[in-house]
Design brief:
alpha/beta; 8-stranded mixed beta sheet; 6-stranded parallel beta sheet; 21 strands; 42% helix; binds adenosine-5'-triphosphate; binds magnesium ion; DNA-binding
Length: 763
């Protein structure tokens, strides 16, 4: 056999090399953050290819988020070139969707099945709970949904559950009813929820060995990144795929993980998977990596000190051969807006000093925190994008447009068809909808098929015509998606969507509206059209269901535009496995981090601490920890307290710009540990004065986004900014809503402002 070339091994330390070169059925790599686990995985893949021990198609590499999968693919491509195209490098969910699209017909699903996102499942649960008046027994969408999810991740389906449940307990009996109905509705809609994607693939493999067999033979080398966060169903899937492969000579399973970064227990992730790996795979080799190549020693010292407060872990100390680097910067704002302004100002400073925007990330614990950040970033014209949070796809107009596409791809999905039945308004009311639904049920046909019978059902002529028109439109679009001849390329999704949006009148209604919100909605629909274009460019043979799959899976990353040149905003959960030159950890407050909800969970605080640890260890050079004394949520202002985790970071590592110990508006609130507001803090209040007073204008705290419409500005104009004072415009770039002015302020330095929303007046 050819050997692994030195070029693949050069950039690796001895234990990393060992992990790349080890041959045997099972390999476990455990190591702290930034120690090169992912790097070892990619080099190992390259090594297997180079020595011809594996064909690209025999490699299955799994990681946790789409973003991480994309990065892994990129790293592999850099090592092996286009051989990487034939590999499956994906998340568990995408891999399972691919398998289910091909195989689900064996157990009664059509390959055009819909993937329900959390919004869909919430809507469904809400309906079920209401119908059964289950709320009186204490059921909510949240608790019923969480329990169903947990059971599915344990591979317990409704039928299995019905055999275990104590029906004498009315609550339990009700839960069974909900679980059953939920399952039944999904099946009838030819739909899977996210948990199903994994669990159903496991069932499929277990129930139909002849289906599983080709995959078992094919994937001779399986590599799993972030193994600490696999749950039971995912683990079972790996077992299904590797079982017989263990006997195949040369096959291998490699898993890498770090128990200190396990942050998905709430989704059923099981740290035991790491602990038990050696029991499950007795011949497994274990490799430990210790040296960190990502962060400065200061950042690692902070991470080590924080995580040391978790019990029940093997002591582990991250170290680097590089120097201590810069101190961590701390900042306490009066409000969330103030904190956001600090973040924006600091990002601009970093940018001026040569850090590219894409090298900067801002993390937060909850999505609600983004609003203030976004507002300020927009005003400061800092380019950013939000990762994770399928935000774009959660907007009503996007859901509408997607529902049109889903109605075409999956006629069984009654939820989708019902969504568009009277959207835009066609004069079809709830009574008509109910009649259609019962007609469908009586005749054993889908809701969509029932639309074709509007005349028979006996609606008035106007309503009947509206229904028939919709039905015809859906049929026309469906015909477009089926290529006339097998070898012909399908009609692009773009054209299908455009037809649907135009002929349904959806676009016309938005266009005719005077509501400024509708203008934004229109832009979003156009953005979705642009997404379909982009999709077609990347997947020339891509069909409608491929598009729907891709969009359903943008769970954790890949927002719309490409990431070049923008600051990334994301939750701490999404940040896993990524790295940035500068990282802002915001909202380091009690109730946010640790999150309020974690108090009720056993081990909740420890998991929150790991989350903080994950955040810290993403940073290469600069780390910022910030918090706010007050926060607005749901229209109310509340006083917050510094996170207990903040006190776990050695004080001498942090340089406070504005410390929790300062006095100021809102100070003197609650007490939490030694870092109470208003008390003299360990890190000293002396630094508080560093920030110019003028920048603190209280008006900013309550500032709201304004609309300057089409304010004319040209280089040379003088303006006044609410916060920065007077200045001179040096350049104007961009068009329409995205016009940006570069302003040299008399005292506040140079800033880029989005003209539309910046608080400016022309002088
Ligand atoms: P995490 O736990 O956060 O997922 P990880 O263990 O997967 O981290 P990597 O992302 O693989 O770590 O590596 C962290 C950084 O260190 C990367 O930029 C990687 O390229 C670099 N790195 C890893 N090993 C080496 C090495 N031997 N020499 C130089 N750089 C390295
Ligand atoms: Mg990694």
């Amino acid at each position: 056999l050819p050997t692994t070339s030195s070029s693949l091994l050069d950039g690796l330390n001895p234990p990393q090399r060992e992990a790349v070169l080890h041959r045997g059925p099972a390999l476990l790599i455990v190591a702290g953050a930034g120690s090169g686990k992912t790097r070892v995985l990619t080099h190992r893949i390259a090594s297997l290819l180079e020595t011809r021990e594996a064909w690209p198609s025999q490699v299955l590499a799994i990681t946790f988020t789409n973003k991480a999968a994309g990065e892994m693919r990129e790293r592999v491509r850099q090592l092996v070139g286009h051989a990487s195209d034939g590999m499956w490098i994906s998340t568990f969910h995408s891999a399972c969707v691919r398998i289910l699209r091909r195989e689900a017909e064996v157990f009664g699903y059509a390959s055009g099945f819909t993937i329900y996102d959390s919004g869909d499942t919430r809507a469904l649960l809400k309906r079920i709970i209401k119908e059964h008046e289950a709320d009186v027994l204490g059921f909510s969408v949240a608790n019923a949904g969480a329990r169903i999810s947990k059971l599915k991740n344990e591979l317990v389906d409704a039928e299995t559950f019905s055999r275990e449940v104590n029906l004498a307990d009315p609550k339990e009996a009700m839960f069974l009813t909900i679980f059953r109905e939920y399952t039944r509705t999904l099946q009838a809609a030819n739909a899977f929820d996210f948990d199903d994607l994994i669990a159903q693939t496991v069932y499929l493999f277990r129930a139909f060995p002849h289906v599983a067999e080709p995959y078992r033979r094919r994937f001779r080398h399986i590599l799993v990144d972030e193994y600490q966060d696999t749950n039971h169903a995912q683990y079972a899937l790996i077992r299904e795929l590797t079982k017989p492969a263990q006997n195949l000579p040369g096959a291998s399973l490699t898993v890498v993980g770090d128990s200190d970064q396990s942050i998905y227990a709430f989704r059923g992730a099981d740290i035991r998977n790491i602990v038990e790996f050696e029991q499950d795979f007795p011949q497994a080799r274990v490799v430990l990596l210790e040296q960190n190549y990502r962060s400065t020693q200061t950042i690692l010292d902070a991470a080590n000190a924080v995580i040391a407060n978790n019990f029940d872990r093997k002591p582990k100390n991250l170290f680097t051969a590089d120097g201590p680097g810069a101190k961590i910067t701390g900042f306490t704002g009066y409000s969330g807006h103030d904190e956001a302004q600090f973040v924006a100002d600091e990002i601009e400073q970093l940018h001026r000093d040569g850090t590219e925007y894409r090298e900067v990330a801002v993390f937060y614990r909850t999505n609600a925190q983004t609003r203030a950040l976004e507002e300020i970033l927009i005003r400061s014209a800092v380019p950013y994008r939000i990762l994770g949070g399928t935000k774009f796809y959660e907007r009503a107009e996007i859901k509408d447009a997607m529902a049109y596409l889903i109605s075409v791809a999956n006629p069984a999905d009654a939820l989708a068809v019902r969504r568009i039945l009277n959207t835009p308004k066609r004069g079809i009311g709830p009574a008509t909808e109910t009649q259609l639904a019962s007609f469908a049920e009586r005749n054993g046909i889908t809701f969509r098929a029932a639309l074709r019978h509007a005349k028979e059902i006996g609606f008035g002529p106007k309503v009947a015509k509206a229904i028939t028109d919709l039905s015809d439109l859906l049929d026309e679009a469906t015909a477009m998606t089926a290529p006339p001849e097998p070898d012909m390329a399908p009609i692009p999704v773009f054209d299908v969507l455009k037809l649907l949006m135009q002929k349904s009148g959806y676009i016309d209604v938005l266009r005719a509206s005077r509501d400024p919100q509708d203008e934004a909605r229109m832009e979003n629909v156009e953005e979705l059209l642009a997404v379909t274009k982009e999709f077609q460019r990347n997947n020339p043979d891509g069909q409608l269901i491929d598009f729907l799959t891709e969009t359903a899976l943008v769970a954790a990353a890949d927002e719309l535009d490409d990431s070049s040149g923008t600051v990334s905003l994301m939750t701490l959960h999404t940040a896993k496995g990524l790295e940035f030159k500068a990282v802002f950890l915001t909202g380091i407050e009690e109730d946010l981090l640790p999150h309020r909800m974690s108090a009720n969970e056993p081990g909740g605080a420890a998991e929150e601490r790991r989350l903080f640890y994950v955040g810290i260890t993403r940073a290469r050079e600069r780390l910022y920890l910030s918090l706010a004394m007050t926060r607005n949520s749901y229209g109310e202002t509340s006083v917050s307290a510094p996170s207990r985790f903040l006190a776990e970071v050695p004080a001498d590592l942090i340089e406070w710009r504005q410390s929790p110990g300062m006095t100021g508006p809102g100070a003197g609130g609650r007490v939490a540990g030694s870092l109470a507001w208003g008390s003299s803090s360990a890190s000293g209040a002396g630094a508080a004065a560093e920030r110019p007073k003028a920048d603190w204008g209280a008006n900013r705290v309550t500032g709201r986004v304004r609309d300057n419409g089409d304010l004319e500005l040209a280089p040379g104009d003088r303006i006044r900014h609410d916060d920065f004072g007077e200045g001179r415009v040096s350049a104007v770039t961009g068009v329409a809503a995205k016009r940006i002015a570069e302003v040299q302020f008399d005292t506040a330095g140079r800033k880029r402002l989005l003209i539309k929303v910046a608080p400016i007046t022309k002088l």
